[in-house]
Automatic annotation (TrEMBL), chain A:
<dbReference type="GO" id="GO:0055085">
    <property type="term" value="P:transmembrane transport"/>
</dbReference>
<feature type="transmembrane region" description="Helical">
    <location>
        <begin position="137"/>
        <end position="155"/>
    </location>
</feature>
<feature type="transmembrane region" description="Helical">
    <location>
        <begin position="227"/>
        <end position="244"/>
    </location>
</feature>
<dbReference type="GO" id="GO:0005886">
    <property type="term" value="C:plasma membrane"/>
</dbReference>
<keyword id="KW-1133">Transmembrane helix</keyword>
<keyword id="KW-0812">Transmembrane</keyword>
<feature type="transmembrane region" description="Helical">
    <location>
        <begin position="39"/>
        <end position="59"/>
    </location>
</feature>
<dbReference type="Pfam" id="PF00528">
    <property type="entry name" value="BPD_transp_1"/>
</dbReference>
<keyword id="KW-0472">Membrane</keyword>
UniProtKB/TrEMBL annotation, chain B:
<dbReference type="InterPro" id="IPR017871">
    <property type="entry name" value="ABC_transporter-like_CS"/>
</dbReference>
<dbReference type="InterPro" id="IPR003439">
    <property type="entry name" value="ABC_transporter-like_ATP-bd"/>
</dbReference>
<dbReference type="GO" id="GO:0016887">
    <property type="term" value="F:ATP hydrolysis activity"/>
</dbReference>
<dbReference type="Pfam" id="PF08352">
    <property type="entry name" value="oligo_HPY"/>
</dbReference>
<keyword id="KW-0067">ATP-binding</keyword>
<dbReference type="GO" id="GO:0015833">
    <property type="term" value="P:peptide transport"/>
</dbReference>
<protein>
    <submittedName>
        <fullName>Peptide/nickel transport system ATP-binding protein</fullName>
    </submittedName>
</protein>
<dbReference type="InterPro" id="IPR013563">
    <property type="entry name" value="Oligopep_ABC_C"/>
</dbReference>
<keyword id="KW-0547">Nucleotide-binding</keyword>
């Protein structure tokens, strides 16, 4: 992968002869594609549940809060998944019950990854006392049992969408910060950062221009992971009735409300559980595929010793 | 399939018409390779990155990287037909019949296990039945066999020690063939010289054949009995090392030799023109045609067959017999410009430390405008710290550094913008010095926007001008570092330094991560810059030969002190410090291969 070079060793070679001047771009190799079978499955699973959550509310056969029959009626042509504990349509409630869980998880994980990432990059770049200060404070946060922490705040301050988002973000923050700090530490030692110092670039610019783009991959992977945890955590909070209150349709809440009727009609419990499972598995597969892809690409980029390997 | 000839015990290794291809059959990375090795013989395999030399070396072990397969030919080692064996049989033979020494011993040894455990495991698996003890193994490679050493973890040993442990492990089973892939590339010259001597002695005493893969023809000269030059998957020239080195018949071999600085000559190096092959042999014509100055139409019509030019010396070139085209190495001395001009940099009693450890002691020297000063020393001598202190990248430095007429403080942040612009630093590894997530153009332009007042509209033109200076094509401006080769990246790094019109360039081992042919081109570029633009340079290197080909004056460092300095020629021809003599003695050199008998027999040179 060497391009034509203008000056030449041998005077006998015609200097004006056009050498191939196009730079050969490293070809996309089959082994480096992100679309492995598991990635495709992850995408299919995640997007089908996502579509269901987004468009579900417009496709409900009944209102999700109207009583349409007796409690725990088995599936029929009128109510395809039967009725729940007070006789509402299960299908309609499933179709409209995912938005809060998904939305809240997305916002909470974005917030958590953004805050944690920022702190991690800063700690990894600054090192020394700043690093120690930030990381020890986050360790304190890490010491609290996660669910209990949320329960404590919610029971004192009352349930509120943004409060929960903030609390879940705070739970994610320390772990994200740890991972990103490790990456930032490594990047901050690279010569291109030393060079930026050398020409007098300001620390903020170094963080934004030099370090941030190079920790983008681990940040994305962390986001995927945190998203999955958030879904599980918020579904749990919903189960306890802390995210939304009855009669709102919510997958977590549905599982709790309808436990007693599991023998008569299992669908109001099973359907939300299956959807939550598909969502988390799909997301995990996607994250995993991305992480593996990013690892491969990075391995290829920093191969100082394996030129031969790379020229395959 | 051929029958195994049980009587043929003389040849340890016999390879016939070997081809290694991609599994989709598109590229032949190794094509039509035939070679034979006697017990105790060392074959050097030389070529540029991507020439297929590593693939060839691995194929001799019956191994192919993922996506490759042995497409044709036979490999026979010690009576076993490796090319015919299944994976489980190959696994049984590896370590006993054939062994491998990788480039980086730090990654070859398990960092979590003690040296004793790893050596013992190796002996258990492969050395059973033989009466070899741990002590014997270590004695072979001249390492201490005390409890302290055996108890150490790999990270506690130096690179040279690790490589010797790896070599001891390879020799443990007394295999018939050992393949070594650039085993000394990461080591400094003195360690390299030790390792090379060890390998040579062990191969002879244990009658083990070895294949030594390297991009550095000077290293191969000092170890190999025979040398094979690989280009685009084919062996283009193979013969006794002295014969290949002093009477090369293939134009590629000649160009490769011209690219390597020789410690014993003052000749400047010259790079190879054109594009290195990007893997795969040309099945219809000579692969070297696009870069060959001697090519005739016939070269485009067929693949040249291997023809002997002398007994045991074969060449794949139609024009091998055409002796008149051979050029001598150019005898251009770097010009002595220093004595006439003013002092640019005056360093007085510079000391630097890293934490509590003092690294530099009382460094005092001067650099005159327009001259190139080389700094040499073994690893750990403080030469990089010196370079970084001058550049302001090492903050913990004390002493007086007078640049032009004003004093330079330590730490770039404390210097004014003009000092930051005027002194530019180029890093050792081009793989780490460019932000992988920014385009080359953006990286180069940042220096311009930070250090100068050039308006944004003109920056692109300035970047292109700098690219032109370092012979990077304009199209590189929007590329990302991973899309360029190592040499191109280093050019980009040089362009980033040149774009701000510096007066003083500090080059820290800038060619040590590169192939010799690429190194030669970078050296040519630097020489040109010095001559045409009057750039002053501090050139740090552990390679005396490289320094000799570019620097007018040289400083030799040891343990953080300057132990010798003076004009390069004077220092190298008449060294006074012990360390200089040692460095000179350890440097790989062509003349090692010039064995007296050979020269008498064939009347060469």
């Amino acid at each position: 992968m060497v391009i034509g070079v203008k000056f030449m060793a041998d005077p006998k070679i015609d200097k004006t002869a056009p050498l191939t001047h196009a730079i050969k771009v490293a070809p996309a190799r089959r082994s480096r594609t992100i679309w492995s079978a598991s990635a495709v499955w992850g995408l299919i699973l995640f997007f089908s549940v996502l579509m269901l959550v987004i468009f579900g509310p417009f496709l409900t056969p009944h209102s999700p809060i109207d009583f349409i029959g007796a409690p725990f009626e088995p599936p029929s042509s009128y109510a395809l998944l039967g009725t729940d504990t007070v006789g509402r349509d299960v299908l309609s409630r499933v179709l409209s019950g995912g938005s809060v869980i998904l939305g809240l998880s997305a916002i909470a994980s974005m917030l958590g990854v953004a805050l944690g990432g920022l702190l991690g990059i800063f700690a990894g770049y600054a090192r020394g006392l700043v690093d120690d200060g930030i990381m020890r404070l986050l360790d304190v946060l890490l010491a609290f049992p996660q669910t209990i922490l949320v329960l404590l705040f919610v029971s004192v301050l009352g349930s509120n969408f943004w409060l929960i988002a903030l609390l879940v973000a705070a739970i994610h923050m320390p772990q994200v910060a740890r991972v990103i700090r490790a990456s930032a530490l490594r990047v901050a030692r690279e010569d291109f950062v030393v060079f930026a110092h050398g020409i007098g670039t300001s620390p903020i610019r170094i963080i934004v221009q030099e370090i941030l783009p190079n920790v983008a991959s681990p940040l994305l992977v962390e986001f995927g992971l945190r998203f999955t945890y958030s879904i599980a955590l918020i579904a749990g909070l919903s189960f306890l009735g802390l995210a939304q209150e009855p009669p709102a349709a919510n997958w977590g809440l549905m599982v709790n409300e309808n436990r007693i009727g599991l023998m008569q009609n299992p669908w109001p419990v099973l359907a939300p559980i299956i959807l939550i499972a598909l969502l988390t598995v799909g997301l995990n597969l996607l994250t995993d595929a991305y992480a593996r892809h990013a690892g491969k690409v990075n391995a290829g980029r920093s191969s100082a010793v394996d030129l031969d390997e790379d020229d395959l | 399939m051929q029958l195994i000839d049980p009587c043929d015990e003389t040849r340890t290794v016999s390879v016939k018409n070997l081809r290694v291809e991609t599994t989709d059959n598109l590229k032949q990375l190794v094509e039509d390779v035939s070679l034979e090795l006697l017990p105790g013989e060392i074959l050097g395999v030389v070529g540029e990155s991507g020439s297929g030399k590593t693939t060839l070396g691995l194929a001799l072990l019956g191994h192919c990287r993922r996506g490759l397969r042995i497409g044709a030919g036979t490999i026979r080692v010690g009576g076993e037909l490796l090319s015919d064996k299944g994976p489980s049989e190959l696994q049984r033979l590896r370590g006993r019949l054939v062994c491998y020494v990788p480039q980086d011993p730090a990654t070859a040894l398990n960092p979590a296990l003690r040296i004793r455990t790893q050596l013992a495991e190796c002996l258990d698996k492969n050395g059973s039945g033989r009466n070899i003890s741990l002590e014997d193994l270590l004695e072979d490679v001249m390492l201490p066999s005390g409890a302290g050493f055996l108890h150490a973890f790999p990270h506690q040993l130096s690179g040279g020690q690790l490589q010797r442990v790896a070599i001891a492990m390879a020799f443990a089973a007394r295999p018939r063939l050992i393949v070594m892939d650039e085993p000394t590339t990461g080591l400094d010259v003195s360690t390299q010289s030790h390792v090379l001597k060890t390998v040579r002695r062990l191969c002879e005493s244990h009658r083990v054949a070895a294949v030594y893969v390297s991009h550095d023809i000077a290293v191969v000269a000092s170890i190999a009995n025979r040398t094979a030059v690989v280009y685009a998957g084919r062996i283009v020239e193979m013969g006794p090392t002295a014969s290949v080195l002093f009477d090369p018949s293939h134009p590629y071999t000649r160009a490769l030799i011209r690219a390597v600085p020789d410690i014993d000559s003052t000749a400047t190096v010259s790079g190879l023109a054109g594009q290195a092959p990007d893997g795969g042999a040309d099945l219809k014509r000579c692969s070297f045609v696009p870069r060959c100055a001697l090519a005739v139409p016939a070269c485009r019509a067929t693949v040249p067959p291997a023809v002997p030019v002398r007994p045991g010396h074969e060449v794949r070139c139609l024009r091998a017999a055409d002796r008149e085209h051979i050029h001598e190495r150019s005898r251009l001395l770097p010009e002595e410009t220093g004595s006439r001009s003013n002092t640019l940099l005056d360093v007085r009693q510079l000391t630097a430390s890293h934490g509590n450890a003092k690294i530099l002691h009382d460094i005092t020297f001067k650099i005159r405008a327009g001259e190139c000063v080389g700094v040499v020393g073994t690893s750990g001598s403080g030469k990089t710290t010196l370079a970084r202190s001058l550049a302001g990248l090492h903050e913990d430095a004390r002493g007086q550094v007078i640049y032009r007429d004003s004093e330079l403080v330590s730490g770039t942040r404390n210097r004014d913008a003009d000092a930051r612009r005027s002194i530019q630093y180029i890093f050792q590894s081009p793989y780490g010095s460019l932000n992988p997530r920014r385009s080359i153009g953006a990286s180069v332009a940042t220096a311009l926007s930070q250090l100068t007042t050039v308006p944004a509209a003109e920056r692109r033109a300035r970047v292109l001008k700098a690219f032109d200076q370092v012979a990077l094509p304009a199209s590189a401006i929007d590329r990302f570092p991973h899309e360029l080769s190592g040499g191109q990246r280093q050019r980009a790094a040089i362009a980033r330094a040149l774009i701000v019109d510096p007066d003083f360039l500090i080059c820290d081992e800038i060619t040590s991560a590169l192939d010799v042919s690429v190194q030669a081109r970078i050296m040519e570029l630097l020489g040109e810059l010095q001559r045409e633009h009057g750039l002053t340079m501090l050139f740090v290197s552990h390679n005396l030969a490289v320094v000799r080909s570019i620097a007018q004056r040289v400083l030799v460092m040891q343990h953080g002190r300057i132990v010798e300095s003076g004009l390069t020629e004077a220092v190298l021809t008449n060294p006074s410090a012990a360390v200089t003599r040692q460095l000179l003695q350890d440097a790989p050199r062509f003349s090692c291969a010039r064995s007296a008998e050979y020269l008498e027999e064939h009347d060469v040179v």
